[in-house]
Write a sequence for this structure.
DNA sequence: CGGTGTCTTGAACACAGTCAATCGGAGTGG
DNA sequence: CCACTCCGATTGACTGTGTTCAAGACACCG
């Protein structure tokens, strides 16, 4: 299977996105005076844990974050991957109801939640922006539910890879920051199944691989797998 | 299995909740002047379809609504059941990205979306209420994702029944407004599996039944199935 | 009553899970 | 530069949970 790397043109090592968000830009357009402080988390470092006070809001500057819940017997469900530009950590309640960890070394901007909410209270425009942001996340979650409830393993992995490719911002070759375990825990599968399906997709010509974590999708074939 | 109805005290036919929301009450506390118009939908009647213009917002006065997406090959995923008091139909985009149908005869209040948004634009308090409503729905969706991704059929059905019991507002005997197909399409299972699991839960003493749609949970046993 | 839609039950099957061995690549130290 | 280790990924053989297909039971309604 390592042949894929030989058959395909040499994949460029990620040059980083051409445009990366300036860390000093405001988190939301309608709150220019809301400023955060930069922070860095190492691989596998917890950013916040379930039950902890939710007093900070985060925006990813570079790297990747997973937010997840765990059942008492250890089963883990990853709710979302947060990539460059994504905002996470917002809650209704005083405490976090899920945990968040850096997947790789990750730079974030941190904003105080109280300030956030105080400004929103008096700024309808900001509050509307927050509202519509939450609604967009809700739509995304619904797609996630559809994926878990009514899609086969093949379809789940194909949809996942297509989404990550799109969000990575780079057409062509892209890198998966997360492990097979992360993917499995996001898609409600096991690592073995994820691995088998990726191999199958490669065999069907839906993707090319360079190692386990770099790949290039054949969009037409992927779309064919997904149907709609 | 019909013995359950004999073994247990005769279940009262639903007397309806003691307190039902007055249809003329404002949809949200911070928008007292936002008034809607009442409307009634019959069993299986579509309230809105995927792709239609999302220009109305709804609140359930009585009855039950399912909102769902369908794949091109007919697989259906129910995203949510809306019961008395619930608000649904809010969207970020101009068009609905899912469909909604009345499950039984359902009375709703209908509010114009434009008016809704216009008021929110100038009323930070309302906008914040909408924001926090969306965040609460987001939390609920995350629980749904955990259910579909990492829970067994037994756990899914138990959690589902517990939630409906809670939301029905009546402790003790309660009615399921939805069919086995609806439950299956919400939980990512088949009707046969739902049926078998309900039978199993009954055999384990986790619930009593009066016909297929009325039951009474033994909370301790249900909690035991769920662990956390 | 008969008819229809819904629910239940059974038997066979399939997809994804489990258990276990092996592979591969990155990092480390001799 | 190579050997060694560690962790993640892959692959294989087998198992099991939930699906599929099919038959029947039940309940509601004319």
């Amino acid at each position: 299977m390592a042949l894929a790397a030989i058959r395909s043109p040499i994949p460029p090592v990620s040059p980083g996105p051409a445009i990366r968000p300036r860390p000093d830009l405001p988190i939301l357009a309608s709150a220019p005076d809301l400023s955060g402080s930069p922070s860095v988390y190492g691989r596998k470092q917890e950013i916040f844990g379930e039950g902890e006070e939710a007093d900070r809001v985060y925006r990813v500057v570079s790297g990747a974050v997973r937010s997840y819940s765990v059942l008492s017997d250890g089963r883990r469900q990853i709710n979302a991957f947060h990539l460059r530009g994504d905002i996470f950590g917002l809650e209704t309640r005083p405490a976090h109801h899920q945990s968040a960890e850096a997947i790789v070394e990750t730079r974030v901007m941190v904003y105080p939640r109280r300030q956030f909410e105080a400004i929103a209270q008096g700024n309808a425009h900001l509050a509307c922006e927050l509202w519509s942001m939450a609604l967009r996340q809700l739509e995304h979650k619904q797609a996630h539910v559809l994926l878990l409830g009514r899609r086969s393993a093949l379809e789940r992995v194909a949809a996942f890879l297509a989404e990550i490719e799109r969000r990575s911002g780079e057409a062509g070759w892209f890198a998966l920051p997360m492990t097979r375990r992360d993917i499995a825990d996001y898609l409600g599968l096991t690592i073995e199944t994820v691995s088998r399906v990726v191999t199958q997709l490669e065999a069907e010509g839906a993707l090319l691989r360079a190692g386990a974590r770099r790949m290039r999708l054949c969009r037409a074939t992927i779309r064919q797998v997904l149907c709609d």
Q: What stands out?
A: The CA atoms of residues 28 and 46 of chain A lie 25 Å apart.
